[in-house]
Specification:
Blueprint lengths: L1 H14 L3 H18 L2 H11 L12 E7 L20 H11 L3 E7 L12 H11 L7 E4 L5 H12 L8 E6 L3 H10 L5 E5 L20 H22 L3
Parallel strand pairs: 1-2, 1-4, 2-3, 4-5
Helix pairs in contact: 1-2, 3-8, 6-7
Length: 242
């Protein structure tokens, strides 16, 4: 996380005994701060990584859509409702595909990455929201064992083995996550049509005049998201997961 690196560099500058090293650490922290808080640069970097949006009209009817979780906050109590995070597009756009008859069924994939057992898995909570949205239970399949993207693919394939009637798939996940997810599904022999959602970027030409010169704390979040996903993608590649 860039914010952590800034703190480390500043602490190193305070602890450095030699003036030249103190100066180097301060300059490095300053450069990192300028780049890290530049919303325009962060937006362009993430924009280059995100897969572009796919027009709805180009999505032919498919047997099912795979909805990857990562939008429900299972740590919040009381557990008498479902708490949705900023990735809610994954759910709403899947519903859009379903209501426009681009997908006939919805496969919700996602358990919990926590060591301790949660009251509900993410798949169960998303299932609740789909039912509240009027989707019949017969049109929903749950995969609630997976703890990461690789297991999303592995366990979804196991689930599909019990449903040979499902042959064509659409993969719905965040645009920044779609590359790694597609790689994992391809690795296990599934080749879904990508449908990226939950875009964290804006079109550069639509940005305000102060987009570039004015530092913005939110840019640090964008950089952290991008670095996290790049690290995950490289790690998965090295491990042979995607």
């Amino acid at each position: 996380m860039p914010a952590t690196w800034m703190v480390v560099l500043l602490v190193a500058a305070l602890l450095a005994r030699q003036p030249r090293w103190r100066k180097r650490f301060v300059v490095a922290a300053l450069v990192l701060t300028v780049i890290g808080t530049n919303a325009g640069l962060a937006n362009l970097a993430l924009l280059a990584w995100e897969l572009p949006p796919v027009p709805l009209r180009t999505i032919a009817p498919h047997d099912a859509g795979i909805l990857l979780t990562g939008m429900a906050n299972t740590h919040k109590s009381p557990h008498d409702r479902v708490y949705i995070s900023s990735a809610a597009d994954r759910l709403t756009h899947t519903l859009w595909l379903y209501r426009t008859h681009r997908i006939r069924r919805i496969i919700v994939s996602g358990g919990s990455g926590d060591v301790d057992k949660r009251v509900h898995t993410e798949a169960e909570e998303v299932n609740t929201l789909l039912r509240l949205s009027g989707v019949p239970q017969a049109d929903i399949l749950l995969e609630d064992r997976s703890r990461n993207t690789r297991e999303n693919a592995l366990y979804t394939k196991e689930l599909l083995a019990k449903h040979p009637e499902i042959k064509s798939l659409v993969l719905v996940t965040s645009a920044f996550h779609e590359r790694r997810a597609l790689g994992c599904f391809h690795r296990v022999g599934l080749h879904p049509t990508p449908f990226p959602v939950d875009f964290r970027t804006t079109d550069p030409e639509d940005s305000a005049a102060g987009y570039w010169p004015i530092p913005e704390a939110g840019a640090l979040v964008t950089w952290s998201l991008l670095i996290h996903e790049l690290t995950g993608y490289v790690t998965y590649k090295l491990m042979g997961y995607c």
